[in-house]
Every structure is written in structure tokens, then in C-alpha cells.
Amino acid sequence: MLRLDNIHAGYGPSEVLKGISLAVNPGEIVALLGANGAGKSTTLLTIAGVVKPRRGQIYWQNQPLNEDSADRVLAHGICLCPEGRRIFPRLSVRENLLIGGYLQNPRRNPEKLDRIFNHFPVLAERQSQLGGTLSGGEQQMLAIGRSLMSEPKTLLLDEPSLGLAPQIVHRIFEILQQINRAGISILLVEQNAREALRIAQRGYVLVTGSIQLEDTAPNLLASDEIRQAYLGEDDI
After folding, report:
1. Quick check: is 141 in a domain?
2. Structural domain contains residue 14
């Protein structure tokens, strides 16, 4: 279980997170929603060890994570798939994937690649193609596949649908459900509130660095107040 307890974090003199508390239980998909600038990406970066908490505590399986470096957090089984994909455009699809598994025994790479190609058959077809020549949707699949090479127990996903066509978005979210059914918990930051809450069990709404609301995903989807005040009518 991943748990944040009263986390404060930010950059320089600016405090972005103002005492947030949330949890991701084993096997869950949890959606983290909010407007641009609310602190969603900072939350993921703080969990991943890239941004250090100023106050509060992050726990992984009841062990504190605050002092762990980003590579140690990854070794625990928490992997961040960042916004904007951030693949290596001059490396092949296969090379991009193999980089994702650098902390693990390389003898297991063929097995892990097979699992990823099962989720993303297009990546199997384009193993030798340079990452930068893929379409936006294919690059997002590659970014998720690279994260899965680390064999995470919890996947932190930042805006996986950003800039993608609706049919590709739907496919990406179907794959996320498959990944979750394989036993990987997901903390999902996503502007597409309808799709995020459709696949999540629970959700949090983040407003200017604070958790404003927490509820089951169906309740959040059904709430007119949430739709109008936090998610926007057009998003839901």
C-alpha cells in the first residue's frame, strides 16, 4: 500500500502541495483529478523521489520513503510514467524498452518484453523503428511499456491521454485496465475525467495543492457538484 500523510512539497520558495493525504491500496486504480496547476504532477514527482517532501511522510508498505532517492523508490516497485512521454527519440523501440528494465536482471528481459508486446502488439511490429518516428499514441504506448519493464507494483501515470485522438485514448485506457488486472496498482493523473473515473475505483480532487474531495469513482461521476465545480461539464 502507498500512503501519503500530510505532505507539503514545492519548488524553491513556492509551496505547491499543502498537506495532502491519499492512499493507493493493492490492486486499485485511483484517479487524481484537478485543474492545471493544482499540484497533480508535483504529487507524482514527490512520490517518485524526484521532489523531496518538506513536511509529512510517504509510506510504502508501512515503510517511510521520504529519504529514498528516485532510483531507490523505483527499486521498491513504484514507477513514474511522466507527462509528455519522454521517450528517447533516437533509440529504437526495443532499446527504449530495455532501458526501462535497467535495475532488473537482464536475463528476464525476453520474458518482460513478451508481456509488453502482448499488451502493445504495435510495439512488437516496430521494435527496430526509432522512437521519434512513432505516432503520438504509439509513443505513449512505448512510455507505458518502458515503465512496465521495471516490473512495478504501483504505476504512477501522468496524463496518458494528453494530445491523443479519442479512439487511441479509449485503447490506452483499456490497456490500463489489463495492466491493473495483472496485479499492478495505478495512481492516475488525468484531465479526461470521464475516462479516468470510468476505470478507477476511487478518486481524489486536488484544488490548489489540497485534497478537496475523496469518494468512490461512481459517486464522483454522478455528482453534479463535482462536475460543475471541479471537473467541468465538458470533461464529464
Report:
1. no
2. yes
- CATH code at 211? 3.40.50.300
Phi/psi of residue 157, nearest 5 degrees: -115, 120
Q: Provide CB contacts within 8 A for 146, sequence distance 6+.
A: 81, 87, 96, 97, 99, 100
Question: Cα–Cα distances in Å, from 134 out to 63, 122, 137, 139, 157?
Answer: 40, 10, 8, 6, 20
- Secondary element (H or E) of residue 98: helix 93-100
What three-state secondary structure class fits 150? coil
| Predicted structure pTM score | 0.90
Which H or E element spans position 174? Answer: helix 166-181
Torsion 71-153-136-202 (CA) sign:
negative
The 10s digit of each residue's pLDDT in 151-202 is 999 999 999 988 888 888 888 899 999 999 999 999 999 888 888 999 999 9
In a domain, 117, yes or no: no
Bridge partner list, 58: 4
Q: What is the residue range of 161's domain?
A: 2-88+151-235
What are 89's three cell numbers? Answer: 527519440
**Angle formed at CA 7 by CA 228 and CA 50, multiple of 5 degrees:** 100
Looking at the domain assignment, is residue 146 inside a domain? no
Q: E strands, 174-222, where?
A: 185-189, 202-207, 210-216
User: How many domains are there within the chain?
Assistant: 1
22 or 194: which leads in pLDDT = 22
